[in-house]
Amino acid sequence: MRLTVLKERRAGETRVAATPETVKKLIGLGITTVAVEAGAGVASGFTDAAYQEAGAEIAADAGAALAGANIVLKVRAPLGTGEGEVDELSFIPRGALLIGTLEGLAEPSRAATYASLGIDAASMELLPRITRAQSMDVLSSQANLAGYRAVIEGATAFDKGFPMLMTAAGTIPAANVFVMGAGVAGLQAIATGRRLGGRVSATDVRPAAKEEIKSLGASFVGYEDEESKAAQTAGGYAKQLSADFYARQAEVVAAHIAKQDVVVTTALVQGRKAPTLVTAAMVASMKPGSVIVDIAADAGGNCALTQPGESIVTENGVKILGYRNWPGRICGAASALYARNLLTFLTTFWDKDAKAPRLPEEDEIVHGVQLTRAGAVVHPQLTPAA
Ligand code: NAD
Predict the structure, then answer these.
(1) Cα(34)–Cα(27) distance, integer angstroms
(2) Atom number of ligand 1 nearest to Cα 270
(3) Which ligand 1 atom is the nearest neighbour of the CA of 185?
């Protein structure tokens, strides 16, 4: 059994899908060869020597790393024909199991390509949000770190402090920090804002989020009505709500946001562009020097003025940080947790006797993540019945 860890080549990707720690454990499962492409971990602080010390073999390039691979670990989808200088997909042997955040539903053509190449693909961002899957939940592990990092970068961009500073020269008031969207990233942003000494408030549409916000010591700001009482899907995600609800929510937010120093936006609605929660008029009402950190930039952004991938300053002096790939901005920790998520996935579906992965089709987790199997597209949302 040969497992390959490829270098990430997509723009701005700094993470890696295995660390020396997980390589050691993969070998412990009975995998005979773990091949790591040279330089794969460098951006995240893991040297080739550290992988070698853990038992891995270092391969000079993608072709050498993938020759004879049975399992391929990636953060992002491998590059295909015309996507970059290396056609990584062309080197993946038929029958190999490919595991990564492959964006299988957002980019449905990928599944068809994997099927035609005979690659069995598992798209880890599609993992069901169930208790059994928590330790392999890549969305949670990465969102948690994104929420932390967003507040740290917001605090750095803010030209005053977070805590109330009482000095002989006078007092600096605590920063008002407002977190919009209190899922995994938002709750970590609240906790981090509080740890830094900010006066934190937060909003969300899901009724369950209100208690979670309060339990972290932040105040809840938001609009609630009969519609928002049912704003959560069975899977725990926010539903798309009516235009009327969003208009009322915006009224409440508009009054609050003008008094905020740092606003962290994290709101997502599954399978859609991120909702616009901060309008241009709201930005115009904010004080010069205040900061908006838009973690939802990859999904289009929660602020109307966010330029995905950029940090900008508006005419009235508000900084808007719209970087992409927030977990990649804290890549050492993000890689460590992501690598453990993949290790847990493999360990959970490991056949000890065969010393090989075995993914039972009927398993809820497998059913959720598997895009292709034995040359066919099998994901329920990508098959003709869907
Ligand atoms: P997400 O990234 O999809 O969205 C982030 C947050 O934005 C959510 O809290 C959502 O309600 C909020 N939001 C959407 N529209 C909004 C609007 N107009 N205004 C304000 N907020 C808005 O969410 P997530 O962080 O992935 O978490 C989704 C849910 O899944 C949560 O309930 C979380 O607790 C749950 N979860 C469960 C597990 C598990 O049991 N294994 C693991 C992770 C998350």
Answers:
(1) 7
(2) 3
(3) 25
| Kind and range of the H or E run holding 166 | strand 165-167
pLDDT per residue as tens digits for the range 268-281: 987 788 999 999 99
Shared domain for 309 and 161, answered yes or no, is yes
Residues 321 and 335 in one domain: no
Model confidence band, residue 224 (pLDDT cutoffs 50, 70, 90): confident
- Compute the average pLDDT of residues 216-236: 87
**Total residues belonging to the chain:** 386
3-state percent helix, strand, coil for the chain, nearest multiple of 5:
35, 20, 45
Q: From CA 13, how far away is CA 351, in angstroms rounded?
A: 32
> Which atom belonging to ligand 1 lies closest to the Cα atom of 246?
18
In the annotation, is 242 catalytic? no
Ligand 1: which residues within 6 Å by Cβ? 129-131, 133-134, 137, 139-140, 143, 180-186, 203-206, 209, 236-238, 266-270, 275, 277
Q: Whose CA is nearest to atom 27 of ligand 1?
A: 183
Q: What is d(CA 40, CA 60) in angstroms, rounded to the nearest whole number? A: 10
ipTM of the complex: 0.96
Residue 13 sits in the same domain as residue 113: yes
- What's the average model confidence in pLDDT over 305-324? 97
Catalytic residue from among 137, 204, 261, 294:
137
| Residue 310 counted as domain residue | yes
How far apart are the C-alpha atoms of 325 and 41, rounded to whole Å?
A: 17
**What's the domain count of the chain?**
2
Of all protein residues, whose CA lies closest to atom 20 belonging to ligand 1?
204
What does the pLDDT read at residue 304? 98
Examine the residue annotation and report whether 129 is marked as an active-site residue of this protein.
Answer: yes
Return phi, psi of residue 351, to 5°: -90, 105
- CATH no. for residue 266? 3.40.50.720
Active site residue 237: yes
Closest by alpha carbon to 22, among 351, 340, 349, 345? 340
Q: Which of 15, 76, 110, 140 is catalytic?
A: 140
The C-alpha atoms of residue 218 and residue 221 are separated, in whole angstroms, by 10
- Which residues constitute the domain of residue 84? 2-126+331-377
| 270 lies in the same domain as 343 | no
Task: Examine the residue annotation and report whether 140 is marked as an active-site residue of this protein.
Answer: yes
Q: Whose CA is nearest to atom 11 of ligand 1?
A: 238
- 251 within a domain of the structure (yes/no): yes
